Amino acid sequence: MCGIVGYIGTKQAAPIILDGLSKLEYRGYDSAGMAIYDGGKINITKSVGRLKVLENLTHGGETMPGICGIGHTRWATHGVPSNTNAHPHYNAAETITVVHNGIIENYLHLRQMLTDKGYQFVSETDTEVLAHLLDYYYRGNPLETVTKVLHRVEGSYALGILFADCPDQVFAARKDSPLVVGQNEDGCFIASDVPAILKYTRKVYYVDNQEVVRLRADHMHFYSVDEEELTKEPVTIEWDANAAEKAGYEHFMLKEMYEQPKTVTDTLMPRIKEKDIVIEELNMSDEELNSVNKIHIVACGSAYHAGVTGKYVIEGLARIPVEVDLASEFRYRNPILEEGAMVVVISQSGETADTLAALRESKARGFKVLGIVNVVGSSIAREADNVMYTWAGPEIAVATTKAYSAQLVALYLLAMKFGKARGKIDSKLFASLLGDLKRLPNQIEMLLNNKLKIQKFANRYIGAKDVFFIGRGIDYAISLEGSLKLKEISYIHSEAYAAGELKHGTISLIEEGTLVAAVSTQPDLYAKTISNMVEVKARGAFVLAVTCEENKEIEKAADYVIYIPETNPYFTNSLAIIPLQLFGYYVAVGKGCDVDKPRNLAKSVTVE
Ligand code: M6R
To answer: Which of 242, 249, 261, 463 is the most buried (most CB within 10 A)?
Structure first.
């Protein structure tokens, strides 16, 4: 979603801001803009479309002189993508300018109040009220002005603000939208996400809710909304800046798919110690694990799909009832959380607005929340009671692959931990499951090496209109994710169905040649899924099957079969998803789609 970069220092600001914004492109955007103070006034340049347009307009920033400025990539919420709606936004005198991520929920009220006072609005955005409100309160003290505005606005924001009167300062503020600041010997930086400034500094400060930062060329000061000065500790970012580069791969998505063996290893191995599973971050004794009588998993998108798998695995191995909710539903459905329940939220970014709201709702009701999170220091990581990190490193492609795979194995570990503590897994089964877990990285690599076969098959479907994914139990969970991977990057309509549900309506959509991907990795259900395959085949479907090597019987019902290596049935998702990710990827590549930045999508959904 929208990106913010700001700089004040001794170097020309515009090229630094453009460079930072380019590192945030993956988040999704439809227009971009920069405001730079040139020594006399603030100049703004904006453009619709890719950042390249803004780069060309400003010759890589060269035509915008000045050593302090703010920049933005906008993902439209209020008003269409256009130059007028793009950020930064000015006050009428063009002396105050602001960039904003998030949503000002009371903007209509504020807009009316300001209009009544004679302010004129040029854009349809909620952000423009901030520029005029800053103007309304400005009496020569920028810090006081910013805090007054923050007291008036409701909703979420990460802000970068520039006052022409005080060109030696840039302001940043945050509530419920991520923001970091950092410093090096050349100046101070603002960014909505670490990769934007990682090239310049590894020491960053996470701005907390309702904090304001005053940045000068050589130092930064932090304040509360009541202007009290705060002391904050920097966090050193450990991951390599190259981790956020393509490293010769055609797309980040392909690179990230290839990183899955490592991601899975990094998430698993530190938690497997001397033939046991040790999840220190859980902070729970065996007695406490035993007292949990229900688990609520809450997440969005692919993280939700990982949660659906988690339900089958935890219920199967630990015999604890698990409810899985979409965070956007959970937060408003007044869920029943009873004593003994535990809430687990899953999120790659750690910033998904609905997931964060679900976490807060659970905490407000007195329940402890475990976060399974990828981004260190993200809002969910900081607000959850306990955090189990998925060590996937930075994920840039909008379509998640490696973080999803890491979430799966984190859930397997949890299931085994609970299962063992509750006496539901005996030592023989535990040892065998551990062996299967350790084999997963190599097996994933093997499947990735089969990419040419999948690519060939995918090329036949670049013209497909509809594709259906079916499966039962864990295979249904895999189908959900396989279907999302295909539709989000290739724009082909696709649905996932529990195979047994087909007859209850969806089968009427099957026509001659419709592709049905049947996932069948659960031995107990092989025969059942084969029946469903036969049913769709009889109505003209072309059936692709993803199954285990032992299930040769399936060849009688399928038109094309992809085999996955042997593992415990609880872990098959980690393997079966690989060919489905590759399938979605190669269909999208074949169609010429922008694989890493699909239309209308953002990497982290920080608004409702
Ligand atoms: O950052 P999160 O894991 O909380 O994000 C959740 C979803 O927005 C995300 O999984 C989304 O569905 C991806 N586009 C899937 O590829």
So the answer is: 261
**15 CA to centre of ligand 1 in angstroms:** 31
Give, in degrees to the nearest 5, the angle at Cα 439 between 438 and 442. 120
The pLDDT value recorded for residue 508 is 87
List the residue whose alpha carbon is closest to atom 11 of ligand 1: 301
Q: Does an H or E element contain 73, and which?
A: strand 68-74
Q: What does pTM read for this prediction?
A: 0.79
pLDDT digits (tens, 9 = 90+) for 359-400: 999 999 999 999 999 998 888 999 999 999 999 988 989 999
Q: How far is the CA of 559 from the centre of ligand 1 (A)?
A: 32
Query: Which atom of ligand 1 has the smallest separation from the CA of 348?
Result: 3
Active site residues: 2, 603
Instruction: Among 253, 256, 302, name the best residue to mutate to test ligand 1's pocket (greatest count of ligand atoms within 8 A of Cβ).
Output: 302
Question: Which residues, judged by CB distance below 6 Å to any ligand atom, belong to the binding site of ligand 1?
Answer: 300-303, 347-349, 352, 355, 398-400, 484, 488, 601, 604-605
Q: pLDDT tens-digit profile of 291-339?
A: 999 999 999 999 999 999 999 999 999 999 999 999 999 988 888 889 9
pLDDT over threshold 80, residue 524: yes
Q: Give the residue among 458, 529, 541 at the shortest CA–CA distance from 497.
A: 529
Handedness of CA 4, 606, 146, 119 (dihedral sign): positive
Q: How far is the CA of 502 from the centre of ligand 1 (A)?
A: 27
Sign of CA dihedral 251, 252, 254, 259: positive
Beta strand segments in 199-308, E: 203-206, 211-215, 220-224, 229-230, 235-236, 272-273, 276-277, 294-299
Chain Cα centroid distance, residue 239: 18
How far does the centroid of ligand 1 lie from the alpha carbon of residue 334, in Å? 23
Question: What is the per-residue pLDDT across 525-566, written as a single tens digit (0 to 9) for each?
Answer: 999 999 999 999 999 999 999 999 999 999 999 999 999 999
Indicate the pLDDT class of residue 505, thresholds 50, 70 and 90. Answer: confident
Cα separation of 545 and 519, whole Å?
Answer: 6
* Residue in the block written with tokens 């069948």: 520
